Structure formats: C-alpha cells, structure tokens
Amino acid sequence: QLQLQESGPGLVKPSETLSLTCTVSGDSISSSTYYWGWIRQPPGKGLEWIGSIYFGGSTYYNPSLKSRITMSVDMSKNQFSLKLSSVSAGDTAVYYCARQLLLKFPSRFDHWGQGTLVTVSS
Amino acid sequence: QPVLTQPPSASASLGASVTLTCTLSSGYSHYRVDWYQQRPGKGPRFVMRVGAGGIVGSKGDGIPDRFSVLGSGLNRYLTINNIQEEDESDYHCGADHGSGSNFVYVFGTGTKVTVL
Fold this sequence. Notes:
The complex is a heterodimer of chains A (122) and B (116). Chain A has 122 residues and is mainly beta. Chain A has strands at residues 3-7, 11-12, 18-25, 34-41, 48-53, 59-61, 69-74, 79-84, 93-102, 106-112, 116-120.
C-alpha cells in the first residue's frame, strides 16, 4: 500500500530556509509513470501547488515561488525533498507531498501524505 | 493558464443530493478537472477526473458509487447522492496546464460541504 510521509522542522525563522522531506513506501520513486509533488495549504485557505519533480531530475515549479524553490530526489532512500528559501509569515502552511500521474504532462495527484504544519516565526 | 472558480459553501440534508460546481475560465472549455475530497484535519484524497464528456479514467481508491461527475461547457460538476455524514468535507478542484516547457497545476478555492 502506497504511503507518503512528510518530515521536517515545524518551526522556521523568518528569512531562513524551510526544508522538508517526503519518504515514499509501497512504490518506487524511480517509477517512469509518476512525478512527485509538493502542495501547501495556509491555515483556513485553499491548496497551492508548489512544484513537481521526476526521478530523473526534471522539475516544474510554481512561477510565483520559483526563485525560492529547490526540489531534489534521493533514489537510494526513496525520498524527495523541498527547500524554500527566504521564508516569511506568508509561508506558514500545512505542506503536503503527493504522487502525480504522468501523462503528456504531470496530471492528477492520486495519493497524498497526511501533511506537516510549518510555522514561520521568530 | 486556467482559473478555477468554486462557491465557498454548499449543504444538503442527510440522504439527499448535492452538486458542486467548478467553473473554468473562458477559453478552457476542453480542459479536464480533478476533484479532491479533504475531510477535517486530513490530507486531500483524489475523487475522480472529469472532462466535457464526463468521467476520465477511474475513481480514486475507495470512492463510493454515490459520487459522480458531469461536464458541460466551462463547468465541471461533482454530485454526491444519498449524502452521508462522512461526506462532510472540503472539496477542491484542480487542473493541469502544460505548454512546451512550461507547466502549472492550479486549484480552485474549495467548497465546504455541510451535511444537515
């Protein structure tokens, strides 16, 4: 059974870098059928796509966040990661990782992690 | 890229039906939309994909038969028949938009469904 689990600090100081890891079990992150994505949800608000990565390293990032995002894959650990630099209070959110079906482009998110709350505060 | 518009709330009495709407911005009537269910305090769950002709592909794991979709013009609908207490959730629609080397995935603002 596929499971995705987010991990990382729950509190980050303003101007610092937010770092999260998603550990995948029940599927190989090197599957050619999927991208792997990050989505966030500020408290009481809707979902926002952050970015998606393929095991080979190809990435797509949200244009509004692109200058601050780095995503990577570690196939030896079956994990993928997100780094978001220069954070501010507006980056406070629950962060989700998810598996994304690949068609011509990345498509629907068919399995999600439970999410992890990251608060940006001094 | 498309913009997805959803009403903020909807409600239905236990056992009744409710239809949720996700409206695509002008020029995107051929786009497919993904529906997600998010129960309180939980991560989203994929429900199903809908295009202008109806469901595309299969439903998500464990999605009951009382969930169905339709597409018409710029609207993509999710209907819940015989609504149950467990269906009380936020419902989000999303769509992918790729062109050349560019890609984005956009979400609507979500609809909160209350079971009366």
